[in-house]
Write a structure and sequence with these properties.
Blueprint: H1 6-13, E1 19-26, E2 32-36, E3 42-44, E4 47-50, E5 56-57, E6 70-76, H2 84-88, E7 96-103, E8 110-123, E9 127-133, E10 168-177, E11 180-185, E12 198-201, E13 210-218, E14 223-228, E15 241-245, H3 252-257, H4 274-277
Parallel strand pairs: 2-4
Antiparallel strand pairs: 1-2, 1-7, 3-4, 5-6, 6-9, 7-8, 8-9, 10-11, 10-15, 11-14, 12-13, 12-15, 13-14
Length: 295
């Protein structure tokens, strides 16, 4: 239920209103940005809501129950507000967005309409549109432990208990072409060690951007080539500094042989798979007598 003051209600009851929308965006890195569809900048709660972004909103869809309510905000990409490289580098992923209905003649008269999370972002010719998902989307996320063959932990988290630093490296970009980075690493690592891992740009215009490593191949000495699934938003230049984290395919074999951490494996590698579920009786197959398959 909206919390509307009596003075603001009087504004709403008028035939001619002085209302606009404002959006307060909070990124996961703590950066706060303000936008409005009014033709002048507005300020309240210490945030400047800029009108130069050309941001506008679409109709919001709502229904009873726990279905996810969605709306959409669209705007222009510009160097001094929202840049394409920032969107590509994931700086706005899962950012929190507050939608306010504001009286632009007196910004102290306002009401909070919704709090949402940025979902899918689509980019066009110098513009973007962002899906705003209601808090109900958190109910779609897996909670608790899942019974699966692969490990349910994330590499280096509290359940994995491994120190990422022991399986990481820094590197300096020597060249970049065709989605492949040529790096000078701080140590020698066998081919495939970083495949499936994470590469983070620690400096340059892509500072903070994280990308997934498609493949890793060792060259001579400390030289290695790294193929990326998706390059970062801005240009990669020689001399950029990066950090790399080993890849983990979440299998029991990798956990035991590559990381020596099978004691903390958070999966069920002996769980019967779909091949067993759809199997039919055969005199040549293993007897189904209720005993263990792994004696």
């Amino acid at each position: 239920m909206l919390d509307i003051s009596s003075s603001f209600q009087q504004k709403l009851d008028r035939q001619a209103t002085t209302l606009c929308h404002c959006w307060r965006l909070l990124r996961r890195d703590g950066a706060i940005m303000g936008f409005t569809d009014h033709d002048r900048d507005l300020t309240f709660d210490g945030v400047v809501f800029r009108a130069s972004t050309g941001l506008s909103a679409t109709e919001a869809e709502r229904s009873l129950g726990l279905s996810v309510a969605t709306s959409e905000a669209a705007g222009a990409l510009s160097d001094d507000s929202l840049s394409e490289s920032d969107l590509l580098n994931g700086l706005y992923d899962n950012a929190s967005v507050e939608t306010w209905l504001v009286d632009w003649s007196d910004p102290q008269l306002r009401t909070l309409l919704d709090v949402a999370t940025i979902g899918e972002v689509r980019r066009g010719e110098g513009a973007f549109s962002a899906e705003l998902r209601s808090s109900a989307h958190f109910f779609d996320q897996t909670q608790g432990r899942a019974f699966q063959r692969g490990c349910a932990a994330d590499f280096g988290d509290g359940r994995c208990k491994l120190s990422i630093g022991a399986f990481a490296s820094t590197g300096v970009v020597a060249a970049f072409s065709g989605g492949v980075l040529t790096l000078n690493l701080s140590g020698v690592f066998e081919s495939g060690f970083f495949t499936g891992g994470r590469l983070t740009f620690t400096g340059g215009v892509n500072g903070g951007a994280k990308v997934t490593i498609k493949s890793h191949r060792r060259e001579s000495g400390l030289r290695a080539t790294i193929a990326l699934w998706t390059p970062p938003g801005a240009a990669i230049v020689s001399g950029d500094v990066v950090s790399l984290t080993a890849g983990c395919d979440k299998s029991a074999t990798t956990c035991r042989t590559k990381f020596g951490n099978i004691v903390n494996f958070r999966g069920f590698p002996h769980m019967p798979g779909n091949d067993l579920v759809i199997a039919y009786p055969s005199s040549r197959s293993q007897a189904m007598d209720g005993g263990s398959f792994f004696q």
